Amino acid sequence: xxxxxxxxxxxxxxxxxxxxxxxxxxxxxxxxxxxxxxxxxxxxxxxxxxxxxxxxxxxxxxxxxxxxxxxxxxxxxxxxxxxxxxxxxxxxxxxxxxxxxxxxxxxxxxxxxxxxxxxxxxxxxxxxxxxxxxxxxxxxxxxxxxxxxxxxxxxxxxxxxxxxxxxxxxxxxxxxxxxxxxxxxxxxxxxxxxxxxxxxxxxxxxxxxxxxxxxxxxxxxxxxxxxxxxxxxxxxxxxxxxxxxxxxxxxxxxxxxxxxxxxxxxxxxxxxxxxxxxxxxxxxxxxxxxxxxxxxxxxxxxxxxxxxxxxxxxxxxxxxxxxxxxxxxxxxxxxxxxxxxxxxxxxxxxxxx
Length: 353
What we know:
By secondary structure, the protein is an alpha/beta fold. It has helices spanning about 65-80, 95-100, 105, 120-125, 125-145, 150-165, 230-245, 260-285, 290-300, 305-320, 330-335; strands at about 10-15, 20-30, 30-40, 50-55, 90, 115, 175, 180, 185-190, 200, 205-210, 250-255, 325-330, 345.
C-alpha cells in the first residue's frame, strides 16, 4: 500500500524563454495529492523579477509541511535560500479548497499579492456565505436526484468534514481587472469545473489547474448548484482553449503528471463526455432519476465518491435537458408538491427537422 504521508520529489522544468518552474507535490487530502508550482522569471528588461506561486495546496493535514519541504528542496536545487518572503505573487487557478486552502498559512508568512478570477472571488473572501448557499442548493438537488433523507444526511456529513475548517480571506487583485495578464503570465478564463477556473500560460508552458488533467476527466457538477459551472460551460471552455493554447509544449496540471500532447488530451476528454451523454440518452428512453443514472455511469462507489458521481450524472442530465432532449416524466407530481421530490427524467421526441 502506498504511504500517503511521505512527500514526493520536487521536479524542475524550464520554459522556452528560460523561466524556471518547480512542481511541488503536496498531499491535499488523505487520498489525494496535488501540485503547487513555483515559477521564477527574471525580467529581461531590467524590471523586478517575478517569484510566483500558483495554487497553495489545501492547508489540511500535512499539506503545509509538504510546501515547506518543497521550498527547501527548491533552495537546494538553486544553491541559494528561497522562502515565503521572496514571493511576489500568488495566483489561484480556481477556488476549490485543495488549491486555495493553504492561503492563510502562506499569507501569514508572505506579503505576496494574491490574485483570483472574479467569479471565484466569493469563494475566498465570502467563504461562509457561499458555503451556506451551496449547501442549501445541494440539499434540494440530492432530494430531486432520488436520495432519501438518511442518504442525504450521510453525504452532508462527508461534504462538510473539511469545509468548516476554512475561513474567508482577503485578496489583492482579480484577473479581469488586470487585463488577464500579469507580466509574462497570460490568463484565460475557462469556466466549467469551477466558475472562476483559469489556465495560466508562461511562454510555452501551460498551468491547467483542474481544467485539464493527465489521466482524470475533471469533475463536473450541475450549474444549478453554482452558476458558470456545468458541462456546457466546460465543453465550450475546452474549445476556447484549443485555439488559445496553440504552441504549448508542456501542460502542468493541478494533479497528476505533466501532459505532453495537449490537443490529444482535450480530444480524449471530449470523446469521454460524448460517450457519457449518449449513454444517458439511451438509458432515459425509460424514466430514471439522477441517482439511477449515476449508478449506470459509475457503478458502485462509496464515501465521498457517491456525491461526486451524483453531481457528474446531474451535469450530464442537465446538459441534455438544456437542449430540449429530456423532460420530467412525473411533472404533475412535481408541480403539486410543496417539498423537493425525486424527479424522473425521460427522453423527449425529437421535434427538429
